[in-house]
Amino acid sequence: MESCLFCKIVNGEIPSTKVYEDADTLAFLDIKPVNPGHTLVIPKKHFTNIHETPDELLGKMAIVAKKISDAILKSGAKGINIGMNNGAIAGQSVFHAHIHVMPRYGKDSFSLWVGKEYDGNEREEVAKKIRSVLN
Ligand code: 5GP
Ligand code: ZN
User: C or N: which end of the chain has fewer Cβ atoms within 10 Å?
Assistant: First the structure.
């Protein structure tokens, strides 16, 4: 896709700091890392998000994310957060599917989501809705 930032990175039109590459995927350092080593794993082919990415390719991306996580841990990180933002409302800003691999070192500014409570039957109703779409 011509106008896509990450496609331009795949094509070498925009420079990136690569850490891993194979026939289907590319992993490079995020330009604004949560912590040094924060890596983005992308498919070389353009897909907008998790929903559009074929299962087999998504599986390959997950395996690369694990490989990068192992390497980051061996390089000194104490833990890893893995995330994927899908859709603008979920914080996606680059619309080429990517998995964030984020090293954690202890004290940093990273914060996790805050859980809330279900009201009444809400939990069962929500599960019912999800199950009915799945089945
Ligand atoms: P999103 O918000 O879509 O989940 O994540 C997009 C990520 O891409 C952000 O963390 C952002 O810092 C990173 N990013 C944006 N532009 C560039 C760029 O030109 N090069 C690199 N390496 N990362 C970028
Ligand atoms: Zn793209």
Answer: C
Q: Count structural domains, the chain.
A: 1
Mean pLDDT by groups of 10 residues along the chain of 135 residues: 94 98 98 96 98 98 98 96 98 98 90 94 97 95
Comparing C-alpha atoms, which of 132, 123, 121, 79 is closest to residue 102? 79
Q: How far does residue 2's CA lie from ligand 1's centre (Å)? A: 17
Atom of ligand 1 nearest to the CA of 5: 19
CATH number at residue 83: 3.30.428.10
C-beta 50 within 6 A of ligand 1? no
Is the whole-model pTM more than 0.70? Answer: yes
**Ligand found nearest the CA of 88:** 1
Q: Which of 110, 106, 100, 30 is nearest to 69 (CA)?
A: 100
